[in-house]
Amino acid sequence: MTSYINGLAASLRYAKEFVIAASAYLFASKTHSAMPTLTPLDAVSHLDPLVIRILGQNPGPFTLQGTNTYLVGAGKRKILIDTGEPNIQQYIALLRSTLAEEQCEIDSIIITHWHHDHVGGINNVLKEVIGHEMFWSVPVWSENSTISHRQSSIWDFERKKVPVYKIKREAGEDASQFHYVEDGHAVHVDGATLRFVKTPGHTSDHASLWLEEEHVLFSGDCILGEGTTVFEDLYDYMNSLGKIKVLYPKRIYPGHGPVVEKCEQKVDEYIQHRMKRENQIIETLQKLGEATSMDITVAVYSDSPLSVRLAALNNVKLHLNKLIKDEQVEMSSFGVYRLLRKHVKVTVIFDLNSPQMNLLKKLASTDF
């Protein structure tokens, strides 16, 4: 009888999560907080001899100053990294004028991940910037994507038979627009080699790009120039931060925000921020014995307004999923979590001796 009552109480607590989360969502949807003060960025910036940054002209709470797109290369042929959002004519005009001023053309396109503020402008770039003459030969590169066919319908370049490249998903439905590449795949243009570094976590298909000639990293949304990023899988995300840390990039060119100069410090800040939250969750479970994700959210984010509780609840669940993978926490069928052991140690979740890590270490230590 006692176990039945405990289970019923846990079920009620679990149901309460959805009520509070829904209330938080409705409240947040009607509450628009002011954007934080951001570092001003020029619309077009020559960051080094091989890299030009062009802002996507789509500023907002999630895109910060806007999506950073990059032209990479030393000669007439350039690689375009990411394409911004769809139908942003100010961006298309900037891209056109920059190509004209530099007397160069887009040789290929690389997409860091499937989010609409990175892939959405592909069709506009192919149609309105590259033009009909080059429309048939420009490859578009990307890693594995989780885009559904409904979402991918915004791209009609598949009908034009433009080659598009990405890593194939191991399981599940995948979009058919991309040709698939592997982790470590290299794309070459005049004076520049970009190598795919698979960095999942923000999304399952996320890729960063290592510019071999400069020892710099295009981080997509894995690392931002300001603030912290969101993620789908914290376990994978922490692994990706470990991969970036081993590379020791001289600079990081992020998907949003200014250039990161103090790269090791930035990566450490990201890791420490997540570990601080994880330790708070562990301490809460040690104190409560067992708790739902909402119980933990209320304890950890006790000073946060209701308008941020939904995002906080999601973060807590992602942390708990990681702790389950680390075999530090278990969840009952009623959605109640508890620690598997009292003394928790931090687990190294990336294999420093894997072939991919050995390749990264070799690249990071090579002088070009």
Automatic annotation (TrEMBL):
Bilayer-spanning residue ranges: none
GO MF terms held by the record: hydrolase activity; metal ion binding; RNA endonuclease activity; single-stranded RNA binding
Domain Metallo-beta-lactamase residues, every copy: 66-256
GO annotation, cellular component aspect: mitochondrial matrix
Keyword Zinc annotated: yes
Keyword tags: Hydrolase, Metal-binding, Zinc
Superkingdom classification of source: Eukaryota
Pfam families: Lactamase_B, WHD_BLACT
InterPro entries associated with the record: LACTB2-like_MBL-fold, LACTB2_WH, Metallo-B-lactamas, RibonucZ/Hydroxyglut_hydro, Sec-metab_biosynth-thioest, WH-like_DNA-bd_sf
Similarity remark: Belongs to the metallo-beta-lactamase superfamily. Glyoxalase II family.
Protein name: Beta-lactamase-like protein 2 homolog
